[in-house]
Amino acid sequence: MNTMNLLQKLKQTFWIANILAVLVIFAILLPGSRRMSSSDSGAKESAGSALALVPVELSDLLRHNPFRPLIAPPAPPKVVPVLAPPMPPPPPKIPISQKASRLHLVGIINGDPIQAVVEDAQTHTTLYLTTGQSIGDIRIEKILSDHIVLASDDDHMDLAL
């Protein structure tokens, strides 16, 4: 119980000392308070005191925000727009004559359905094709008695016997 009373007395003394310190600071800083004249400052300096009083107005203290951070926050990073690289141009269109240069019409078989016998020089194979079938991207469009019509994209070509 005795220690509790001692702690309460210490708290009261602490608060009283803080209140007195605040009052003394306000008394010094209040406008119209006594300021040191040049004759007073000379007397103090001659007395060997290194402490010099600087006149301070309350408006000077209120002009600056004492709660602002001392270190400025870092600037946000600059946003640089990233442009997508341009699309490459489409590959050049290969003419059907170049695509079909490896094909040779060997014969035509009349029947139901009519068939074209085509030899592929690149793969060394013989193909029996009907209308509508394809060799890669070359389509057999028509089979006639002496030639066939090939188509690729919008390009057409005749391949004769």
Task: Give a concise summary.
With 161 residues, this protein is an alpha+beta fold.
Question: Care to describe what's here?
Answer:
The structure is a single chain. This protein is α+β, with helices and mostly antiparallel strands. The longest helix has 28 residues, at 2-29. 29% of the residues lie in helices and 24% in strands. It has helices at 2-29, 38-46, 58-63, 96-99, and strands at 103-109, 115-120, 125-129, 134-135, 138-143, 147-152, 155-160. The protein is rod-shaped. It folds into two domains: 2-63, no CATH class; 96-160, SH3 type barrels, CATH 2.30.30.830. β2 (115-120) and β3 form a beta hairpin. The chain has four helices and seven strands, in the order ααααβββββββ. The strands form two sheets. Strands 4-5-6-7 form a four-stranded antiparallel beta sheet. The protein has a three-stranded antiparallel beta sheet with strand order 1-2-3, with no helix packed on it.
- Name the structural class: alpha+beta
Order of helices and strands: HHHHEEEEEEE
The CA-CA distance between the termini, in Å, is 124 Å
Strand content: 15-25%
Level-2 CATH architecture of the largest domain: Roll
Kindly provide the radius of gyration, computed on alpha-carbon positions and rounded to a whole number of angstroms: 52 Å
- The helix count comes to 4
Helix content: 25-40%
Any idea of the CATH topology of the largest domain?
SH3 type barrels
In total, the number of strands is 7
**Sheet with the most strands, sense and barrel status:** 4 strands, antiparallel
Overall pLDDT, averaged? 80
Q: Could you give the order of strands across the largest sheet?
A: 4-5-6-7
